[in-house]
From TrEMBL:
Belongs to the Cob(I)alamin adenosyltransferase family. The gene is cobO. It is found in: Cytoplasm. Residues 1-26 form the Cob(I)alamin adenosyltransferase N-terminal domain. Keywords: ATP-binding, Cobalamin biosynthesis, Cytoplasm, Nucleotide-binding, Porphyrin biosynthesis, Transferase. Its EC number is 2.5.1.17. Residues 1-20 are annotated as: Disordered. The lineage of its organism: Bacteria, Pseudomonadati, Pseudomonadota, Alphaproteobacteria, Hyphomicrobiales. Pathway: Cofactor biosynthesis; adenosylcobalamin biosynthesis; adenosylcobalamin from cob(II)yrinate a,c-diamide: step 2/7. Required for both de novo synthesis of the corrin ring for the assimilation of exogenous corrinoids. Participates in the adenosylation of a variety of incomplete and complete corrinoids. GO terms for biological process: cobalamin biosynthetic process; porphyrin-containing compound biosynthetic process. InterPro entries: CblAdoTrfase_CobA, Co_AT_N_dom, P-loop_NTPase. NCBIfam families: cobA, PRK05986.1. This is Corrinoid adenosyltransferase.
């Protein structure tokens, strides 16, 4: 008959083995570098995850840069929260709204070009440790920016700089250049049930 004491001993032995494996795995990781991170996929939360990472970076005393490529001048909760950090956050909303709102490709290309110029400026700033390029994938999807130039600029960023790119339909070339790619799947979305975008959840 198995006693609680036996069960506890088995569990402890199992966890000791697991810890040894984990410790060895962690000890084998010796490289530290700036990462190119891509959050893509049809699911909700790509930008939200990027802003969560920005909050983590701020918690460690870093400066953070944000460039929004598509979203227009929305009054968003994340912008309000991050701008409360003052000059530790350089926030630039450069888009003029989604392409179906502007309905003017030349205007969208011009806005995306200005946004990427700002992104280059932030990436060159040695005081910034993390740059969030929100919805850059959308600008690339619609060919508002030259893909090869963007990928080359991201791959050639200064040493130690972390960059997060968000948006659906990440290009294969960007995925190949990235260090970390997360694809967010959509299992269920409240929009399908007629629920509108809500303050504090969508923006």
């Amino acid at each position: 008959m198995t006693t609680d004491t036996d069960e506890a001993a088995r569990h402890r032995a199992k966890m000791e083995k697991r810890k040894a494996v984990q410790d060895a795995e962690v000890a084998s990781k010796t490289i530290e570098k700036g990462l190119l991170i891509v959050n893509t996929g049809p699911g909700k939360g790509k930008s939200t995850a990027a802003f969560g990472l920005a909050l983590r970076a701020l918690g460690h005393g870093w400066r953070v840069g944000v460039v929004q490529f598509i979203k227009g001048a929305w009054d968003t909760g994340e912008r309000r929260a991050l701008e409360a950090f003052g000059d530790r956050v350089a926030w630039h909303t450069m888009g003029e709204g989604f392409t179906w709102e502007t309905q003017d490709k030349a205007r969208d290309i011009a806005a995306a070009t200005r946004a990427f110029d700002k992104a280059r400026e932030l990436m060159a700033d040695p005081t910034i440790g993390l740059v969030v390029l929100d919805e850059l994938n959308i600008a690339l999807r619609y060919d508002y920016l030259p893909l090869d130039e963007v990928v080359a600029a991201l791959a050639g960023r200064r040493e130690g700089l972390h960059v997060v790119v968000t948006g659906r339909n990440a290009k294969p070339e960007l995925i190949a250049a990235a260090d970390l790619v997360t694809e967010m799947g959509q299992v269920k979305h409240h929009f399908a049930a007629g629920v509108k975008a809500q303050r504090g959840i969508e923006f």
